[in-house]
Amino acid sequence: MKLRPLLYAMGLMTLGLGLFMLPCVVADLEADRDEWRIFFLLSIASITLGGVMALSARVEKVPIRTHDAFVLTVLLWVVLVFVASGPFFIGFGMSFTDAVFESMSGLTTTGATIMTGIENYPPSLHLWRSLLHWIGGIGIIVTAIAILPSLRLGGMQLFHLESSDTSEKFLPRIGEIALQTTYVYLGLTVICAGLYRLTGMSGFVSITMAMSTVSTGGFAVTDASFAPYVEGHADIVAMIFMSICSMPFALMVIALHGKWKLVIKDPQPLVWCCFAIAGSVIMAMYIAYHQEVEVGPEGTLRMVAFNVISILSGTGFGTEDFNTWGPFPATIFILMMFLGGTAGSASCGLKTFRVHIAFKAMISYTKQMIRPNQISPVRYAGKRVEETTLQSIMIFVFLFLASFAVLTCGLAMTGLDPLTAISAAAATICNVGPGLGEIVGPAGTFQPLPDAAKWMCITAMLLGRLELISIFVILSPSFWRN
Asked: Which residues cross the membrane (predicted)?
């Protein structure tokens, strides 16, 4: 294993996080808050440490082997989480466990929080939480586009843009793909912030909420999440951008280059929208029939659609305490946590393409059982899905569900009730944020959980964000023997 390139990459990322702390200094200076000193000192420390690591480990450009890519992908996220926890731990007196939890939740765009009385914290901390979302969102998008497919993780190779492919290639190098994806990501953030500003949000709130929305993160600047902004119709803006950012960002870049045939061929956006529309309509009809609502049919549909899109996209914003909607909506929300967004998006969960292919594979295997001599290949986006891809998808789904089951049992062992254990496990491994029940539901936080449960949730957030298999691979003894 080549250690110097790994140290060099970690140094650059640590330096980068230090630079991202500087806007937090400006935010507190503008608000005349003394907490700017915390971020200034931590920024200097991070820049210095990262700079020293990068300079001391700098080497000529060398190819990174697949073996090293696994380690680098996991190690970078772990290092970033611990560095990013500094302001929470050193500056605001949180315990080490709580600081790491909040940092992991931010960078993995989960949105689960241990903080209460959020309105009382300085602007610097609000901005830092949103910046963590924003950094993590673009980080996982670029990782999903440039790294995970080449590692053949859970069927992601379906979306790998091979450098030798000249027929469907829209950019010549992965670096340019990542750069133009970043431009799209930044542009969506700016547009979202501008529209939020038009709905009546202050300039600062519109920026922080836009970063949380586009990254499908879910951190808000109030304990009430998104509820204070519904009257200004900001929820409509949020629904639009949560939906857009649940789509593959590579498709957005392709669309900007006029390759609309490639965009239309990908069934993910249509399938995701069908899930969102069907879930919203069914749940709205259920609530209108079983509960008395004062907002009328249109208001009910709008209220339900916001929360459905928020959970399905993995954002985790809330306008209502959907714990009070009854057992059927709670069950639907759990299922939507698992469905998640699309491949190559900032979203979460099993991903639409895996669910779609698994369903098609089930139909194909059923046909073969009825007619053993019949050849019934699984096709996706007009192409035959190779057996190796089917195998990786099935392995991923199994590992995902097995990890969820183990995590649920582990959380229950810490004394949590079944609903809290199940929903906390689903909310963290699917990177959604709020769970169900009085403790971790939309009206609660993860603060009351014992430290052991919080560390399980921290692990679950990392597992879910990095597509599980990369973590399991580096934990394998054979990986290190080879």
From this structure: 37-57, 69-94, 131-151, 177-198, 204-224, 236-257, 269-289, 330-350, 393-413, 452-475
